[in-house]
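@here heads up, posting the sequence + SMILES for the adenosine-5'-triphosphate run so it's all in one place. Ping me if the SMILES looks off, I pulled it from an old spreadsheet.
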Amino acid sequence: MSAPAPAPAVPGAPTPGRTAPAPSGIRFEGVTVAYGGNVVLDRLDLTVEPGEVMALLGPSGSGKTTALRAVAGFVRPASGQVFLGGRDVTALPPHRRGIGMVVQSYALFPHLKVKDNVAFGLKAHRTPKAEIPGRVTEALELVGMAAYAERHPRELSGGQQQRVAIARALAIRPGVLLLDEPLSALDARLRSGMLAELARLHRELPDVSILYVTHDQVEALTLADRIAVMDASRLQDCGTPLELYRRPRTEFTASFVGNANLLPVTVAGEGAVGFGGHALAVPTGTAAPGATATLCVRPHLVGIGDGPNALTGSVTEVQWRGSTHRVHADVDGHRLMADLRELREPPALGDPVTLHFAAEDAVLLPDGASEPAGVGP
Ligand SMILES: Nc1ncnc2c1ncn2[C@@H]1O[C@H](COP(=O)(O)OP(=O)(O)OP(=O)(O)O)[C@@H](O)[C@H]1O
Ligand SMILES: [Mg+2]
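bot reply: prediction finished. Complex structure tokens:
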């Protein structure tokens, strides 16, 4: 009798003792979600690269959570596809997508100890029993909560509970981490501490793609590699924080990412616009003479006194903001704000004031340019 032939290798079978890395990277292709015929996410095209942190920023009701739920599999798109790691997962149930998710309200089980909360997801993912304690410790160490394993959620602060929720999401070693306003239940100081924590966590898990939903621009600017700006069920803009801040493409982005002076202007010719009776020299790009547009100038780029593009108005408000004074002026019925440093004597209300800005610090936003952006990577 001859010895049995060795079993043929099964292509794609996992190597014993090693878990295949979870797929990283998210792609939305024309994803539309409707509730009862009401479209709440309209043809979303967006790619989150492996290892990238993408913030989904937008006002309440703009469709951010819906987009996240479509990735997690809790909502089925009416049309379009969701890809994880290049694979179409649109028809897969949530538990087969290998995703970690953290929501605003922690959703820890109150009757389970910290370690059992973290183990819960691992059991649901059928992790071998012997591996679970090690994986629980690993996840709790990542968020600095290993010393709290034996406590119940009620014995933890809000920030600590949120860390445990993050540990629970990370325990399955997901390739994709979805965070839905994870800091909104925390007070301002804890929030900024947790932001630094999340940034550190991302450095330790450089391959994980993170989709981070927030309506807080500071969180988005601090944490994200890129920001996708949502409004009214649609993606309005997408870019790095600096791109969106310096070169917003729409009025909505300009006012939602950072503060902005938005002045209604008419293009007079190349490099020239009219603002009321004033002629301003600003880049006009491809805008044709006669076209109406909005001029965006960031308040910290506005100076006081005479200079290029000087406009004179009267002071309507002065706010002391610690390192700057924000001076509001009324110029022909329009508000112009300047954030001024080292202002020895702030002007008084009603005083005349001259403000100015450099041509290169102004961005012209042609009217009607707020069509949703088909923005890819
Ligand atoms: N299960 C549902 N049934 C019907 N309508 C829903 C459902 N879930 C969400 N919506 C609606 O879809 C729209 C988008 O909701 P979504 O939760 O995505 O907004 P959001 O951007 O996350 O807002 P917020 O910042 O307030 O959390 C809202 O108008 C909401 O009322
Ligand atoms: Mg939401």
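MO: Helices lie at 64-72, 114-124, 132-142, 158-171, 188-204, 217-223, 241-246, 251-256.
MO: One more: The chain has eight helices and 20 strands.
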